[in-house]
Amino acid sequence: MTKHEIAEVLEEIGVLLELQGENPFKTRAYQNGARALEAMEADEFSARMIAGTLGELKGFGEALVDKIGKLHATGRLEFYDKLRAQIPDGVIALLDVPGLGPKKIKALRDQLGVESPEALAEACRAGRVAELAGFGDKTQTKILEGLANREAYGKRHRWWDARAVAEPIVHALRLLAGVHRAEAAGSLRRNLETVGDLDFIVAADATAAESITGWFCAQPDVKEVTARGETKASVRFASGLQADLRIVPEAQFAFALHHFTGSKDHNVAMRQRALARGLSLSEWGLVPEAGEGTAKEKAERGESVVLADEAELFARLELEFIPPELREGLGEIEIAEAARAHGVALPRLVELADLRGAFHNHTTESDGKNSLVEMAQAAEGLGWQYLGIADHSKSSVQARGLDEERLAAQVATIRAFNASGRCRTRLLTGVESDILPDGRLDYSDEAFASLGLDYVVASVHSAFTQSEDEMTRRIVRAIEHPRTTMLGHATGRILLRREGYKVDLARVIDAAIAQRVIIELNAHPSRLDLDWRLWRRAAERGLMCAINPDAHDTAGLRNVEAGVRVARKGWLQAVNVLNTRDLVGVLRWFTARQ
Fold it and tell me: What is the CATH number of domain 251-346?
């Protein structure tokens, strides 16, 4: 295991021990050990593991060093396995309920016997949770809301997680005998932020169909085969994600791929367009509307238009090709029609290769898991020209936010690192400043002036329950602060777990455009905030976007891929995204804003 993986295990051990009511000193030992590992340079960790000197550091007792050594060498720890086996899965699931931590969960177990979300919901509805010391009516109401969200969201999955399941399957399908083409369709292909299920479309020889469905149903992570026929199969993975496989003749592939990619509104509009031309469009093909038989029967009789791919389908209906992410029935067909009429393509949407860096990133100075140097090296590996460091400000105590003295020291460190020439990627000095409940930023004007930061990300991290008017005035005031460069995660939403706070985004966007303040598209797979549905109109009015990974470790820098995919859904082009500019262009924008 790597040091970060070991740190995660230690952190989880601390949580499990808290759930069991273990001595606080013991739980803190694991949590402190996890934080110490995260703060340690990778080279130092490797050197100490080889030399056996980890125990020389403060906080690393003999028992902890022994456990770290076993995890590092084997990736397994019997102590952890036994501890995890003692905690019911239902109790672990309670950790996903907003507002519940290990201490409260232990109280619920000890006093009410609650060991699952279902039992907790029953206890709340009976009013028994409110009667417990440290809970009350307000907490009980919040718990019920959190449980309701958990149930509502339980049927959907983050795009990032669904993609991780789908990609290896598509790759393997393409290698099977008899397979000509294979793609994932549905909301995953449209880059929707959450995915209900997976659809796989395969063009294959009829003689290979049975072996292909057999392979699909036998995947190691399949928990249940819900249906299986000659050319179709449906399974449920251990994560709860449903998946359907459809095998079609190669001549039908483009039609099936388009149909099962959707969306419903897009497909309806496309069918209407076909009908206006005397044609019937379906998953089976593009056939004459007149004549006997169903669309399937007509296609089987060879009456369908022959197409090589989806681009030819759109051309046949007098449209420019519409990328899958734009197929939401939100005017894309009208735009594609106008483009075709004028002999031009649709706007070139932003691509991952267009990005030259990012601004919202954290290090071990606050709640990140990698050091400044490690983050810089990872950015260099991605070929980025620049990387902005924006650790949390002092009000984010839970994230070890930086006070003025620590931030000034970090700025000096960054400048020295840049001057050293150790890395081709230029580090930019920033901070993620809390927007306080009244709209002030977390540092005084004098502090900002003395720090000389390149930029400031202003974000809400507290007082989420303010009214819509209060929250809107709060954020607008922060936007109007002369030091604010960009607004971070504009609604504070956590996909599938927490709705965003109430805020009038129209007023926020107006203020950002007026003040030349960037609104980020937070690319963390759990946020993807600001929502893609708002970007097209906002960008047309001049709002600048920054696709930021909100990275808390080196791997998190790759979150920008999710952000780019969502930006494309919002019709964003490279010109609309600040971090497609080179270093000179970025610094020019920052200077002009200040």
Answer: 3.30.210.10
The answer to whether the peptide bond before residue 263 is cis (omega within 30 degrees of 0) is yes
- CATH 3.30.210.10 placement within the chain: 251-346
According to CATH, the superfamily of the domain at 352-593 is Metal-dependent hydrolases (3.20.20.140)
| Residue 100 pLDDT level (bands cut at 50, 70, 90) | confident
Query: What is residue 153's predicted lDDT score, i.e. its pLDDT?
Result: 67
Q: In sequence order, what are the residues at sequence separation of 6 or more whose Cβ sits closer than 8 angstroms to the Cβ of residue 304?
A: 251, 252, 255, 284, 285, 286, 287, 298
For the domain made up of 154-248, give the CATH fold: Beta Polymerase; domain 2 (3.30.460)
| Separation between Cα atoms, residue 213 and residue 204, nearest integer Å | 11
pLDDT tier, 497 (very low <50, low <70, confident <90, very high otherwise): confident
CATH C-level class of 3-152: mainly alpha
Rounded Cα distance between 420 and 413, Å, is 10
Task: Kindly report the average pLDDT of the chain as a whole number.
Answer: 94
| Cβ partners under 8 Å of residue 158, min gap 6 | 193, 194, 195, 495, 496, 525, 526
Element (H or E) spanning 271, and its range? helix 264-275
What whole-number distance in Å separates Cα of residue 365 and Cα of residue 399?
9
**Strand ranges (E), 330-425:** 357-358, 386-389
Lowest average pLDDT, out of 116-120, 237-241, 373-377, 442-446, goes to 237-241
